[in-house]
Write a structure and sequence with these properties.
heterodimer; A: mainly alpha; B: 110 residues
């Protein structure tokens, strides 16, 4: 004797044995799982239920009205496992499929299949044309403009954010993005940002910077609330701003570094600072300490902007940080080279620095 | 084993083509399609057929209408759309091209 369970298969009631019910439920659960990404999931499941019911009806009759476990297993075997097509989940069903409503469209660098930084690739995605066409146009313009377009390319490379998530890659093409994935991604990203935030916070205790971040956070949050389909933070606008700010900060801080070195050099050689002579009784190390302090104070806001920019670039900022450092170093070296060639006295000073390492320099410095 | 997998890949790729051919020939419902394929290399089960039908319907290649059946609930009868017919034409040409290539290669063999 077996317990009987009544099941509803696409609107019709069937009586099945308990074990038959278990098998049926396992099959339908698996089908539902496999079809999770299929837009017609409900309909296909209804069709499957209908087919199982039809097969069940054929097994019944002759005074029997309960499906046994063996019968159910045979039916499910006949049905076969649910197979979905080989097309990647969420991908478009080929060129013939009609394009669905467009999502938010944004210019991003697209690294997948990029030749350099993905600028042409991103533009191609944005305008919906083949990347090869954009590249050809780019090369053509490069020759016509005598290289000016290369500067535009560099600017875009720094300013335009890179599409790093599936959601952004979808936005780069203006395709709609599955809402649930969007929410998941936003949540994951938020915790990511929060974590990295904590790390930065531990490192940089400066109240000023914290205030800067808080304001930034607040702004990002407000932005996210006004446009619910963007991921909360860092926003697209913040990343563009960071892309613009970073090279600027790099140039300015390189200039300040060079100025600081010039002052230091003149302090060590002549004891003068910008034409102002140090008092005789003031030890040189005090002057150097004062110079370092002034330098730290002047560069503090620059550093705040730099870290806020890194923050806004999100978890994949590594590439930017390296470029930022390279830019700074290149500018300082360039300034040094320029000074050596064109500013009288610098050459001799540097030579004196290297040749007379243990000579009056340190005596003067008071060590 | 691996050759079996290769054949499976070929069968999978061709199933959609055969499906269009069957639906083009006659207005059919799922049991008809399964019956037509049963006993061939392309014997298919509901678990495969329903998702595939749903996919090509989404691609606007086929359409269906409900029809009352003498026994039991109404059934979905499938038929080709204009787009499906156009695609079938292309696939037919393509298939003939493949056959020609295979035959030519066979003839060139010593």
């Amino acid at each position: 004797m077996n317990k009987v369970i009544t099941v509803n298969l696409n609107g019709r009631a069937y009586q099945v044995e308990e074990q038959a019910f278990e098998a049926l439920r396992a099959y339908l659960d698996e089908a539902e799982r496999l079809l999770a990404d299929d837009p017609d999931r409900r309909e296909i499941l209804a069709d499957l239920e209908q087919a199982i019911g039809d097969k069940g009806s054929r097994c019944l009759g002759g005074g029997k009205n309960v499906l046994s476990e063996a019968q159910m297993k045979r039916i499910l075997e006949e049905m076969g496992p649910v197979e979905i097509g080989d097309e990647p989940a969420g991908g478009s069903a080929g060129a013939s499929a009609p394009r669905e409503a467009t999502g938010p469209k944004r210019l991003y660098l697209v690294r997948e299949g990029a030749m350099i930084a993905g600028v042409c690739n991103g533009l191609a995605a944005y305008f919906g044309v083949d990347p090869t066409i954009v590249r050809l146009v780019f090369v053509l313009l490069l020759f016509l403009s005598g290289g000016l377009v290369a500067i535009a390319y560099l600017v875009l490379m720094f300013v335009v954010p890179t599409a790093t998530t599936a959601e952004e890659r979808a936005a780069a093409r203006g395709l709609p993005f599955n809402a649930q994935e969007l929410v998941d991604q936003a949540k994951r990203h938020y915790s990511d940002v929060k974590e990295s935030h904590q790390r930065w916070r531990e490192k940089r205790q400066r109240r000023k910077e914290q205030a800067f971040w808080r304001a930034k956070e607040r702004r990002a949050r407000e932005e996210a609330q006004s446009r619910p389909f963007e991921r909360p933070q860092p926003g697209y606008g913040a990343r563009v701003a960071a892309g613009i700010a970073l090279p600027l900060v790099g140039v300015i801080s390189a200039a300040i570094t060079v100025a600081g070195l010039i002052v230091l050099a003149s302090l060590l050689t002549t004891g003068d600072v910008l034409g102002w002579t140090l008092p005789v009784d003031l030890p040189a190390w005090v002057a150097i300490a004062a110079l370092v302090a002034v330098w730290a104070i002047v560069t503090a806001p620059l550093r705040a902007v730099r870290y806020a920019s890194y923050e806004a670039l999100g978890p994949r900022r590594g590439w930017f940080v390296i470029w930022d450092g390279v830019l700074w170093l290149a500018l300082v070296v360039l300034a040094g080279w320029f000074a050596m060639r064109y500013v009288p006295g610098v050459d001799e000073f540097l030579h004196g620095l290297f040749h007379g390492w243990h000579q009056p320099l340190f005596v003067f410095a008071g060590f | 084993m691996s050759s079996g997998l290769k054949f499976l890949a070929i069968r999978k790729g061709l199933l959609e083509y055969l499906l269009l051919k069957i639906i083009a020939a006659d207005k059919v419902y799922v049991a008809d399609i399964l019956a037509r394929l049963a006993g061939t290399e392309f014997a298919t089960q509901e678990g495969t057929l329903y998702p595939l039908l749903s996919k090509i319907r989404r691609e606007d290649l086929v359409d269906y209408e409900w029809q009352e059946s003498g026994a039991g609930p109404p059934r979905k009868y499938y038929r080709l759309t204009a787009k499906g017919r156009a695609q079938l034409g292309e696939l037919n040409d393509y298939w003939r091209g493949i056959n020609r290539t295979v035959e030519q290669l066979e003839r060139q063999e010593p």
